[in-house]
Automatic annotation (TrEMBL):
EC number: 2.3.1.35, 2.3.1.1
Protein name, as recorded: Arginine biosynthesis bifunctional protein ArgJ
Keyword Acyltransferase: yes
Function as written in the Swiss-Prot or TrEMBL entry: Catalyzes two activities which are involved in the cyclic version of arginine biosynthesis: the synthesis of N-acetylglutamate from glutamate and acetyl-CoA as the acetyl donor, and of ornithine by transacetylation between N(2)-acetylornithine and glutamate.
Length: 407
């Protein structure tokens, strides 16, 4: 697998993109993005588990009955969530406008929004913006970056990735962009992720692969424990690489799968690194469980613990908070078997071994936790399964950002 440093949604063949300001955000900040495939692409999609779903989510869940799509239009600055019938009407109007501009049918278009909840969407600005943006979309890496910039809210920078693998003598590419910084929690969050690929694959198999991939990527991240109304991950595959159609349980499929998982994991981790107010990137590895799902539950319990997050912000090796989070996770285990390690580039400290606390020097612990990337390793010694989750610390800045989010 080759990583393309300037990669994004325009990396695969046949995809164009772009971004512009249509007037939703102040100060002429970019707030409208388009992704377009030159040919219809088999599409997979997963959306928020929140019972309160934004209008664009409802649209996408409806039109995906036909899994071949050709365009995505995304606005930032307004979530178009909890906006009643007016919000639903606005989504339909947006899809219709996009379809007219690109010579498609409205149902060929996916729509996404992100931003403030409960505010009427200024749809006329979006419709005018589509007229301006469609003639400008292109297939360069800069076009992809413009699209990635247009979907941001409290994010501090774009989140993009591109890779290339060889399948059947053909170069197959995968590109992606994402947004997400706050309201991030396992089982999807206030994140949008758009991935494109030129591989030839059946939509049903792509959907299966996306669902499997999401379990150990986006569903294993948390910034603040809140699950949004608008989150979505979408993959479009237009088949322009020219490979024979991928089939499950083949070497070619496994090659593609490895690259596919890498793309989504990379985007998920970039979201955490840009968590609102975050100063630490935390990786929690749980080993030695009876089942994979038990390991997932335990790892997520640690990364969602506010007491663990605040301790790491303060660079305090308060490992009892980690053990406490494991204990209330709902998974049964023997505390007298547990071993616990904190590590970073600055070193490693064993805090608990087979249930027995290990004495450590506070200054050495402070040195380990002063790094940006912190690893928490837990071994339950109760089986052969494992899982990894990613989170961040909880800082003063997080409270500041969310205290005046609407303004």
């Amino acid at each position: 697998m080759k990583i393309i440093k300037t990669g994004g949604v325009t990396t695969p063949r046949g995809f164009k993109a772009g971004g512009t300001n249509c007037g939703i955000k102040a100060n002429e900040k970019s707030d409208l993005a388009i992704i377009y495939s030159e040919v219809p692409g088999g599409t997979a999609i997963l959306t928020t588990t929140n019972e309160v779903k934004a209008a664009p989510i409802l649209w996408c869940k409806d039109v995906i009955a036909n899994p071949y799509k050709q365009a995505v239009v995304v606005n930032s600055g307004n979530a178009n969530a909890c906006t009643g019938q007016a919000g639903i009407t606005a989504v339909a109007a947006t899809a219709k406008k996009m379809a007219e501009a690109l010579g498609l049918k409205p149902e060929d278009v996916l729509v996404a929004s992100t931003g403030v909840i409960g505010v009427a969407l200024p749809v006329e600005k979006i419709l005018s913006g589509i007229d301006v943006l469609v003639p400008k979309i292109g297939n360069t890496s800069e076009d992809g970056r413009l699209a990635a910039n247009a979907i941001l809210t409290t994010d501090t920078g774009v989140k993009t990735i591109g890779v290339e693998v060889e399948i059947q003598g053909k170069l197959v590419k995968i590109g992606g962009m994402a947004k997400g910084s706050g309201m991030i929690h396992p089982n999807m969050a206030t994140m949008l992720s758009f991935v494109t690929t030129d591989v030839n694959i059946e939509p049903a198999l792509l959907q299966k692969l996306l669902k499997e991939t999401t379990i150990d990527t986006y569903n294993m991240i948390s910034v603040d424990g809140d699950t949004s109304t608008n989150d979505m991950v979408t993959v479009m595959s237009n088949g322009m690489a020219g490979n024979d159609k991928l089939e499950e349980a083949t070497t070619d499929y496994e090659i593609f799968k490895e690259a596919f998982v890498f793309v989504h994991k990379t985007l998920a981790k970039k979201i955490i690194r840009d968590g609102e107010g975050a100063t630490k990137f935390i990786e929690v590895e749980v080993y030695g469980t009876k089942t994979k799902n038990e390991a997932r539950i335990l790892a997520k319990a640690v990364i969602t613990s506010n007491l663990v997050k605040t301790a790491l912000f303060g660079e305090d090796a308060n490992w009892g908070r980690v053990l406490c989070a494991l204990g209330y996770s709902g998974v049964e285990f023997d505390p007298l078997k547990v071993s616990l390690i904190f590590s970073s580039q600055a070193g490693m400290i064993t805090l608990l071994k087979d249930g027995v606390p290990i004495a450590f020097k506070e200054d050495e612990a402070k040195k380990v936790l002063s790094e940006t990337d912190i690893n928490i390793s837990v071994d339950l010694k109760d089986g052969d399964e494992k899982a990894v989750a990613w989170g961040c610390d909880l800082s003063y800045e997080y409270v500041k950002i969310n205290g005046d989010y609407r303004s």
